[in-house]
């Protein structure tokens, strides 16, 4: 976590020093879009390479897909409500909405295609596997974080938003928690009709807020490896949806939509999408919200599991 924060922080002064270089600013913004696609490709590849996960897709995939989908949609709904009643400056923009819904949906489908291609090639074992693929994903993430920090540095006035919002800024991570748990509850209401799953299980899976590695480890160590597997799949899907959907749903959710949908990953993997789609000011909110949620996950999940 410290390394990720350091990369973002290191990109900020670099962006500030180069802020007047218009061609470079355009290049960095374009680079962000491609790094997101590459990250989605590698995320899909990680899924395709994991035979254990693939074998569990039929039995656990439906649980994971419903919880992740409703959790992300719950965050989008919360973002719309916050934009309408609290953060009116980030409400849905009619002009932006009318300017290019087709372009937004096309970008979403392209991102989805990268994820699907990675999963397919990983499953077919066509590209290098093992440590090589893992190291590539790490370096892409490092580049992504540093570039996202640069976009914040291009407009350092955005940092003043934390001071401007004061206590209101805490409503953003709180909105993620409420939206995620509302979505997880709805997913449980549907799943409980034909599967043996409790509300606590559904909340525990959703409570990873897209932080799939940490959520999986915590739930597995608490004595439920099967639920840990569901958490891994669900939170990976959560992260993928948070990368794919924002350009398409921005017109309905406002600029806070990508921030809340990213959950804990809003401060790293999803940060370039936030910066590109919602702007540098929202990228600052994403870093703050992601840090809060990252610290909340290891506290909240054990508390939820005590309710089983």
Explain what you see.
The chain has 15 helices and no strands. With 308 residues, the protein is an all-alpha fold. It has one domain. It is globular. About 4% of the residues have low confidence.
How would you summarize this macromolecular structure in one to three sentences?
Helix content is 80%, strand content 0%.
| Total count of strands | 0
Report how far the terminal alpha carbons are from each other: 30 Å
Structural class: mainly alpha
Choose one word for the global shape: globular
Helix tally equals: 15
Radius of gyration: 19 Å
Low-confidence stretches: 95-105
Mean pLDDT across the residues is 80
Chart the SSEs and their pairings.
Layout: H1 2-17, H2 22-49, H3 51-85, H4 94-99, H5 101-124, H6 131-153, H7 160-165, H8 171-191, H9 199-206, H10 212-221, H11 225-244, H12 246-253, H13 257-262, H14 271-278, H15 280-305
Helix pairs in contact: 1-6, 2-5, 2-6, 3-8, 3-11, 5-12, 6-15, 8-9, 8-15, 9-11, 10-11, 10-15, 14-15
Give the key terms:
mainly alpha; 308 residues
